[in-house]
Every structure is written in structure tokens, then in C-alpha cells.
Known about the structure:
Elements: E1 3-5, H1 11-16, E2 26-29, E3 32-35, E4 44-48, H2 65-78, E5 82-85, H3 95-103, E6 107-111, H4 128-141, E7 147-154, H5 164-182, E8 189-193, H6 200-206, E9 218-223, H7 238-245, E10 252-257, H8 269-274, E11 284-287, E12 300-301, E13 310-311, H9 313-324, H10 364-372, E14 376-378, H11 385-401, E15 409-410, E16 415-416, H12 424-438, E17 451-453
Parallel strand pairs: 4-5, 4-11, 5-6, 6-7, 7-8, 8-9, 9-10, 10-11
Antiparallel strand pairs: 1-2, 2-3, 12-13, 14-17, 15-16
Amino acid sequence: MKFATLASASLGALCASSVVAAIDPLTIKGSKWFNSKTGEQFYFKGIAYQPRTGLSGNPDPLADMVGCKRDVAVFKDLGINSIRVYDVDYTKSHDECMKLLEDAGIYLLLDMPSPQYSINRAEPHWDHDTMSHWQAKVDAFAKYPNLVAWIAGNEVANDVETTPSAAFVKAAIRDMKAYLKTKKLTTPVGYADNDDPKIRMNLINFFNCGDEGSRADFYGINTYRWCGDETDFKTSGYEDITKNMTSYTIPSLLTEYGCNLVRPRTFSEVKSLYGTDMGSTFSGGILYEYTEEDNEYGVVKVSFGDSKVEKNSDYDNFKKVLAAVKPQGVKMDSYKASGKDSVCPAASSVWHVKSDVLPPTPSQARCQCMIDSLGCTFKSDKLSTDEGKLVGEVVGNICGATSCDEISVDTAKGMYGDFSACSSLQRSAWAVNKNYENQNGAVCEAGDVETKTVSSPKQDDIKECLNKKDDNGTAGKPSDSSSGSSQDDDKNSSSGSNSKDEDSSDENDSDENDSDDSGSDEDIDEDSDTSSGASAVTAQLSAAVAAALLLAF
């Protein structure tokens, strides 16, 4: 039975602090959230919070005290108890704003990815750079008692072709849960899907199958099906959504909702969400969104640096319906968790993942050891945009002529090369060295990109690199990455953008915050054109054709 207190600070920090938290900790038991002090079931009455009007640079509403003071007062009037924030700058101080939210009784659900460090749905990859930035965000927010949940991916796999990305998101969940454990933190880590009819059940089952260490702690659904008063619980498809989650063994909630095709919005779905239709299955939801932006989903208009707030009719309507709902939950003591964990979906024409094997945990030590073993490598540890393009072509040619299994991935077969979690530059260096070895050391080259030979590599035997510890401190072969059931011998965007398309429909066309960001790799020039198909950071080698290391600049 799953029963974990959601502490957002380490035990040591809690013992050392003389300040009593102004907000009660929450607890997950089975498929429900509870207030651990009162024992009452908890329902999220939240709103997405990422103001963008008037901003220049990276958005961080929790570091903007003019906006935070302005908006917390509005939150209290609106009657919400939680906010979802997609992007913050973890290097800034958030103490003052988080304290204001805490004193107002408002919990925070925070996305782990950012536009620069996320899992790209088209060319998914999970490496040290991305993981280390997520870890830094955890470290920055761990001390806040009102941080209630992490979201490791938002609409990353959003159609059949992008289902391979789900394997990398689940690997990220596994590794971030392990990292939290090393910090004596129990904050849950979840995922939010886009409610796509072709892949939704595979996603729902995938993130709740296998061992507990790799499963999501909760599951979110972003849905925009219920549009206007002419829609109801049945015709909107909300009834089907609810049936899908009835026997789910972890909590589920609507991590985004609020179709805007009919305005002003009357939010008639709120009555179902917190009433008898859905209240026994879902733990509430997060309305999209607080501020009116170009996509026209907001309930207020604000501008960066300005304390003025202009409320619209959506605000009044949402406040009214939210105040009217009184969800009747169960008491924690009397609730008995039931149901069985989901069965992992099998690889198929609509699910390109061997669900019981996950990508390896990133290891900076393992990848550096591999680099130290090469006799032919790049002269520079950073490539320009043009050099990156050239290297992509060179590596594509190399891997088209020889096996690059060690740096390749095939999610449908559960096949992940020993060095597939290394950065794009490191994997490229491996391929260039492979070509050098195939020619018996005759030519060390990578097109017009400068290379060098190393007569006496620091590492004699590359196989020894496989025993290096991963970034969570665990030693072992990287391919020993099981999702829980069994591991066969035939192993094989973002949360960042926050800009929903204006013409998105209520039927699964939401593009808000999908993790289609290009990701980041600090060894590649940052002036990349993320509109093209793949990224140097998240480039993957196809195990089937080993054709190319795709780099988008």
C-alpha cells in the first residue's frame, strides 16, 4: 500500500528549523491525497500561473515580488488552494513569494523541465546536463513546505510517433525519485498527458506499471473537451476520462482544463469535477490559466512590474462555481486503498516502447571515462553551430557503415547502448573514434571539424567505464535499467513554452507547455534554431539504420 507523507524539506532541515509551517503537509494514500493533520481528503482547486505579458527574458513569477504580492491577494479572493508553475529560475531567491503563498494556504505544483532542459518529444534524450539542472531546481525548492508535487513532463508524447519519448520521461521520473530519496525528500513526482485518444490508455498504464521506484506518484490529464454550457459530463467525454481512471492505484487530477472556444467561460465542468461525477476518482484540477495572454485563456490581465489587476467575466464565473462546490471526500483513517498496478503496455504499431526496459541513468563519470579511452577525438570540447551540423553528417555516414550500438537507442526493442545517455558531443566523439579504429588508426578526422589523436589515452579499457557510478551514486552496467517486470535479452517538448495555440480545439489539440523544446547541451552553441526537427542535445541514433546523429541549429 502506498502511504507517503509529502515533505518538501529534508528531515534534517525540519529538525533544524524553529519556524512552524503555516500550511499542513499533504499525504498520498492509495489513489487519494489527504491533509495529514486533519485526515480530510484533499482536492486541488488550482490555477496555472505563468504571467508573460511585459516580460523580457526567462519568466519566473515566483521571483517577481511586485507580481507575487499582487497575485496572492487575488488568489485568496478567487478561493484557490494551489497553483501550477511551469518555469522558474532556480538561481533566484523565492523565499518571500513562497512564504506569501504558504501563509495564504496555497500549495505549489512545479514542473521540473524548463525550455532549455527538457525531454524533446521528437528526438528524446536524458543525459547529465538535463538531469543536473532538474536536481538544482529540486535543491532550490526543497525547503518550502508548500511545494507539494513535481511534474516531470507535460504532454511530451502527444501522438503515436512520439511515444518513444515516454520511455525517457519515465527514466527521468525514476532517477529524480532516486535523487529525492538521497536528499531524504518524499515530494511526489508525476506526469501530465495531453489526452490523445490513440495513446492515452498506453500512457496511463505505462506510468503506473513496473516497480514503484520507476512509476509516477500521480498522474495528470490536460483536457479541453468540455466547451460551454451545451456540453455535459457525457457529451464532453469527461465520463470516459473518469472511467479510465476509476481503478487507478495512484492519484489522478486534471493538470489543465478550461476550453476557451466559448467565452465567457462558465466552467460548468467544475460541478462534475468536484461532485459525484468525478469527485471519488479525481483529486480536483488546475484551471488553465490565471493571466490573459495572446492565447486568451486568462481570468485576469496583468503586466510585469505593474500592481494593477484587471479581472474579466471568466474570473467572476470561476470564483462563483469554485465557491459553490463542496467535494465530499473520505477520511484517511477509514479509506482502504484498492486495485492493482497497471499492466505495462506491449510494444505495438501505436506504442513504440518496450515498457519493461528504460533508458539508463545518466553518468557523467561513465561518459568522461569513455572520452578518456578514445585515441581519436575532437580538439575542442565545444562545437559551433556550423561544426555541429558537419559532425551530424559525419557521424551519420560513420554509423551508416558500421555498428554504433553502444551509442544507439531502439525504444521498441528496449535496446539502449552503454553510452547512449552521454551528451551529443561525447557520442559523436565515440563514433569518430570508432571510424578511426576501423581504419587501424590511419585517419582521425571528422570532416572539417578539428580532431586530435591521443597516443596514450588515460583510460586503457573502455569496458571498465561501465562500472562507473551514475549521477545518483549507483554503480553498475548502464543497460541494467528495468522498469520493473522483466528484462529480456533482446534489449534494444515542454514544459517550457507555455503558449497554447490560439486555434487549439477542445479535442486533444492543446499545445500548451508541451515539452517540444530542443533541450540543452552546454557543449553545443546555444544559438540553435529549435524550430527544426531535432537537436544536438537530444539527438538519437536509430539502432535499426544507424543513419545519422541529427543536429538542429
